[in-house]
Design brief:
The chain has about 150 residues and is an alpha+beta fold.
């Protein structure tokens, strides 16, 4: 089953792979790994999930933002392997930044939005290492930014 089909079976849509917003590339293949640049929660160019957790966004909104980042990560990985998901061995790591107030401490709950989606879509190959930390601000005022590393063959 294609990644697009799996994503749709879960009730989501695989977005188009976003173009870089500055002087970088959206992913790099090096050896047997794909390094996906930080993805923000804009889907198909539509701004969403703007703000800070603990200030004007709820944990549920943060989870939705993390899910949107995960969908964008999957879109970039799909582009990297030209739609051939048989090349993806596993998701190795997610690195997540949560735009939040200094007293916010539920970063793991927010980032579970991305982690849970990856496991739902990829099964055991979606189980990964990760970090989830708070930041006082993120680019364009988004709630979450997440990058990823995949192993490929």
């Amino acid at each position: 089953m294609s990644i697009k089909t799996k994503v749709e079976a879960l009730g989501y849509e695989l977005p188009g792979a976003a173009a870089p917003a500055a002087n970088y590339v959206p992913y790099v293949i090096s050896g047997s790994q794909i390094f996906v640049a930080g993805q923000i929660p804009f889907l198909n160019g539509e701004k969403m999930h703007m703000g800070r957790l603990g200030e004007n966004l709820s944990i549920e909104q943060g989870i939705e933002a993390a899910r949107a980042c995960a969908l964008n990560i999957l879109a970039q990985a799909n582009e990297a392997v030209e739609g051939d998901w048989s090349r993806i061995v596993k998701l190795v790591k997610l690195g997540a930044f949560v735009n939040c107030t200094p007293d916010f401490y539920d970063h793991p709950k927010v980032v579970n939005g991305a982690s849970d989606l990856m496991v739902e879509v990829m099964g055991d190959a979606g189980k990964h290492a990760r970090f989830a930390v708070g930041a006082p601000s993120l680019p364009l005022g988004v709630a979450v930014e997440i990058d990823a590393i995949f192993e490929i063959k």
